Amino acid sequence: MQQDSLLNIRTGILLTFLFICLLLLNSCLKNTTENMESTISHLVNQVSRDNIKNHIRALTQEGSRFTNEEKASISKYINNQLESFGYEVQSIKTQDTLNLVAELRGTVTSNNIFVVAGHYDTVEDSPGADDNASAVAGMLEIARVLAKTSLVTTVQFVAFDNEEKELLGSGLYVQSLKDQGKEVIGMISLEMIAYTCGNCQIPFSDIKDCLNVQPEGIATGDFIGIVGNTHSKHMISDFRNAAENYVPALKFVSAEVAGNGSCFASTRRSDHASFWDLNYPAIMITDTANFRNPNYHKETDTLDTLDLEFATQVVKATLATVISTANTPRSQLQ
Ligand SMILES: [Zn+2]
Known about the structure:
By secondary structure, this protein is α/β, with parallel strands linked by helices. The chain has two domains: 1-45; 49-332, Aminopeptidase (3-Layer(aba) Sandwich). It is built from eight helices and nine strands. The chain has a nine-stranded mixed β-sheet with strand order 1-2-4-3-5-9-7-8-6, with helices on both faces. The mean pLDDT is 92. The structure holds zinc ion. Residues 119, 131-132, 163, 191-192, 270 line the site of zinc ion.
């Protein structure tokens, strides 16, 4: 009888102890999630519309960025901006192509990297405010906000050259990552992020066995497009979740294309396609280019035609996506 009581007391103590442990663990996990959410909100609030505007003005003020002479002062500008945020910038010149790379080293040493990129070149005779100064401006602003933070995974900020020449800059760069044995856990290609309109949007619909659009048939040009392939499906969800949680005013439409996008070639029209071709997950964030913007590849693609409030929201959602993904240990990613 006495032994039974002793056993009951011991079991009781053990159960109480386990219960307290569970409570502590639960509250610890809850605190970690809440801390993470408040950190992301805090950083998202630091994105500045004025900075984005000033970058676009600086990047477009000399007109097109097509020849090497035209691009020289612009690559210098991007380099100087990244350095002013505290990054060491690598200028990688290969085959007449100059890519610029700044790296935020992850707290866990590994070969994993997350890439945020936009191309800085234009077609001939277009100042390319939307295509693609808007994206470079966004990439620079994200790099600035993240400069003093520490994330689990290494993040690279890349300004690609020669996107307009068959994705040459990103093609060379992604091959070099592969050759170095780097594991790209995700890549975001910012491709025109600043044009909106009332009724100039050419709507998108599903294409059987090829394209899955959600929601379909939107004819108002005030959403951001998230384009991924089958292999980067999880990145579409990550961006959608980040946008919903941290930038609820931003409307979006996502499009998931089968395979490497060849069944609907328009989904391949930026640097993310270079990553798809080496089987790395990547998404394109876009205002849908010529499906919306009448100034696409023209002299009229200028700063005064852009919706900077919209661009700021897109940059905020991209930033939130980068932090949530790069701060998640690899084992928890899909
Ligand atoms: Zn472009």
